[in-house]
Amino acid sequence: QKEVEQNSGPLSVPEGAIASLNCTYSDRGSQSFFWYRQYSGKSPELIMSIYSNGDKEDGRFTAQLNKASQYVSLLIRDSQPSDSATYLCAVNIETGNQFYFGTGTSLTVIP
Amino acid sequence: DAGVIQSPRHEVTEMGQEVTLRCKPISGHNSLFWYRQTMMRGLELLIYFNNNVPIDDSGMPEDRFSAKMPNASFSTLKIQPSEPRDSAVYFCASSSSLTGFGNTIYFGEGSWLTVV
Questions:
Q1: How many angstroms separate the CA atoms of B48 and B41, rounded?
Q2: DSSP for A47-70?
């Protein structure tokens, strides 16, 4: 079983809509949770981190964490074509400072 | 502040040749990671170091791959001999392994390897 699972997509949404990206993880020892955005031909860049249950908002982005369900999500409001990228979910297991990544969800925002 | 620095950015080599990829982590970070990314397999962890010591190399595909971290500011990933199936993007990343929440991993721009 993979440590982090994501729907690979592709996910397509019209411009201005809400994009919803989901991620599940298997290790209950996971402490920190991250969303990275990766444009084609570029390296992953951090866009959100979340450490406790609930919602965390940053501009158009909202991360949601439910540790009981081992579930992390990312909502992108008012989606823009520039949001078109692959989104990677990652978890950090503090013991040994391990980071595990999902395979990513490809998002396309249609103008 | 400088981020994670990788070299070379691009390399094309012939099958059987030795390839050496280099990485300078962010100053002050004591964890260093080597990842490989392909379309088929996504982002795979090859090996990671804490305080220059290899902690987990279970992701290293085979004996042709080796990694070293002789000091806190430099690491190499070597492939010898290289094969066409090694063609991928190799990312180096670093993190601080302070206890508690807030550890974040930062990536270099990657080394794009093509083995022909």
A1: 18
A2: EEEE-SSEEEEETTEEEEEETTTT
Q: Tell me whether residues A94 and B56 touch, CB distance under 8 A.
A: no
- Cα A29 to Cα A39, A72, A73, A97, B98, distances in angstroms: 30, 14, 18, 11, 16
Whole-angstrom distance, CA of residue A24 vs CA of residue A68: 11
Q: For residue B105, give both structure tokens.
A: 């991993």
- At residue B17, the 3 state secondary structure works out as coil
Distance from CA of A77 to the nearest CA of B (A): 24
What HEC string does B64-105 produce?
CEEEEEEECCEEEEEECCCCHHHCEEEEEEEECCCCCCCCCC
* A96 — pLDDT class (breaks 50, 70, 90): low
Whether A32 sits inside 8 A of B103 (CB atoms) is yes
Q: What is the pLDDT of residues B61-81, one digit of tens each?
A: 889 999 999 999 999 999 999
Query: Measured between alpha carbons, how far is A93 from B25 in angstroms, rounded to an integer?
Result: 20
